[in-house]
Design brief:
This protein is an alpha/beta fold. It is 36% helix and 21% strand. Strands 1, 2, 5, 6, 7, 8, 9, 10 and 11 form a 9-stranded mixed beta sheet that branches. A two-stranded antiparallel sheet has the order 3-4. The protein starts with 15 loop residues before the first strand and ends with a helix. Bound molecules: adenosine-5'-triphosphate and iron/sulfur cluster (SF4). The site of iron/sulfur cluster has 4 residues, from loops.
Length: 271
């Protein structure tokens, strides 16, 4: 049986979720953020590790930009995004002098930071740690998976948009998971239709169902479709809690249903 290591700063973290996508801009950071908020609303304590070194957008989405990361005996203390301290966040965005400056580091420096993020953040007790990764399957993904592999349960959520070109990228992402021994929690289709802010109508701007079809073809669970919702875009822009503010929206139903499926699927990854 595979060894289960639970040392150091991840000792109090009960589940780790890696969020992956084949290409950029499909909503990986959006899903990471909203999943964390949805899990929090279901009473869970959640941490977010933003490993997207070149485009750390989560501090903005959670209105935490400009906050400072402090040091303690165990390493970095993550930033708490709410007063109740139910969501904590660590991002390279907190370490840059100018948050608009691009990270142009070479591979070894990126690897070192990822390793440090995995080992040196004092998360304390967490039900879920959501890890937002850069798009694709780069060296950074290898470094992240290698650093996190000893910790279980560890699973991957794969985000796609409905179009065939994005679905093709996801196929490569699933191959990456299989090759690196990463268990797949499921596939999520984002930007799946346009949810009208005035009525419940959902219009399929692009084709629909590519994510579900791919999940079926590859034997991976399909966790749900999240529509494009202008209220969600605005909430992310303004760093507001969409899950709290729009409980009647189609995107809310989709996101909370996905969070419940994740809660249900995680223990199964141990068996
Ligand atoms: N379901 C949705 N409804 C409305 N807006 C969305 C939705 N999903 C994503 N967006 C918007 O699309 C943009 C891209 O999303 P996001 O930054 O999450 O993508 P990403 O895959 O993380 O990108 P990157 O490749 O830069 O890491 C953001 O402005 C976000 O607000
Ligand atoms: S989506 Fe259709 S029904 Fe909804 S407000 Fe727009 S036009 Fe009206």
């Amino acid at each position: 049986m595979e060894a289960v290591a639970e040392p150091g700063n991840l000792a109090g973290v009960r589940n780790i979720i890696l969020v992956l996508s084949g290409k950029g801009g499909v909503g990986k950071s959006t899903i990471s953020t909203e999943l964390a908020l949805a899990l929090r609303h279901q009473g869970k304590k959640v941490g977010i590790l933003d490993v997207d070194l070149c485009g750390p957008s989560i501090p903005h989405m959670l209105r935490a930009q400009g906050k400072a990361v402090h040091q303690c005996d165990q390493g970095w203390v993550p930033v708490f995004v709410d007063q109740e301290k139910t969501i904590s966040l660590m991002s390279v965005g907190f370490l840059l002098e100018n948050p608009d400056e691009a990270v142009v580091w070479r591979g070894p420096k990126k690897h070192a930071l990822i390793k440090q993020f995995v080992s040196d953040v004092a998360w304390g007790e967490l039900d879920y740690l959501v890890v937002d990764t850069p798009p694709g399957t780069s060296d950074e993904h290898m470094a992240t998976v290698e650093a996190l592999r000893p910790y279980r349960p560890l699973g991957a959520l794969v985000i796609t948009t409905p179009q065939a070109v994005s679905v093709g990228d996801v196929r490569r992402e699933l191959t990456f998971c299989r090759k690196t021994g990463l268990q797949i929690i499921g596939v999520i289709e984002n930007m799946s239709g346009f949810a009208c802010p005035h009525c419940a109508e959902c219009t399929n701007v692009f084709s629909r169902g590519g994510g579900e079809e791919l999940a079926q073809l590859t034997g991976v669970p399909f966790l749900g479709s999240v529509p494009l919702d202008p209220q969600l875009t605005r909430s992310l822009e303004e760093g507001r809690d969409f899950i709290q503010e729009f409980p009647k929206s189609t995107a809310y139903s989709a996101l909370t249903s996905i969070a419940q499926k994740v809660l249900h699927r995680m223990p199964a990854l141990l068996s």
